[in-house]
Amino acid sequence: MAKPTLDETLGELDAGIFAQKTHEALKQVAMGVIATGKKGQVSITLDLDRIGDSSSVQIKHTLKFSRPTKNGKTSEENTTSTPMYADNLGYLTISPQTQDDLFKESEKRGNVTKIGG
């Protein structure tokens, strides 16, 4: 079973919308920085809480950004949350990774016939 990467995990937050919002914020702030020569900022905060007695967590994800303008700055803050499952190594996914590799188990028992090389 392949372990998810950081990109994949962040891409699952809010069904991918969080990653899209973050990308858009980075673009807007970069354009403000280029246009004004002033500093801008993009911040991501992730707060995790356990869901009951399960091996799941509720991740509250907050995106804040400040885009410089000619006469000041504009800023925005957006918070949403996503429940995620944590496996025994702490990898987070949107759905539990409980499916065993059936072919490996069947091969161990001699139930699989290899075809070709």
Characterize the structure shown.
The chain has helices at 6-12, 17-36, 102-109, and strands at 41-50, 56-69, 72-86, 92-93. The chain is elongated. The protein is 30% helix and 35% strand. The protein contains three helices and four strands. The protein has 117 residues and is of the alpha+beta class. It has a four-stranded antiparallel β-sheet, covered by helices on one side. The model has no long low-confidence stretch (mean pLDDT 88). The chain has one domain (6-95).
| SS-based class | alpha+beta
Q: Spans of 5+ residues with little confidence (pLDDT < 50)?
A: none
- The count of helical stretches stands at 3
Proportion of helical residues: 25-40%
Please report which band the strand proportion falls in: under 5%, 5-15%, 15-25%, 25-35%, 35-45% or over 45%: 35-45%
Secondary structure: number of strands: 4
What shape does the CA trace take?
elongated
Protein name: Prophage protein
Organism: Methylobacter tundripaludum
Biased composition (Polar residues): 68-83
Region (Disordered): 66-86
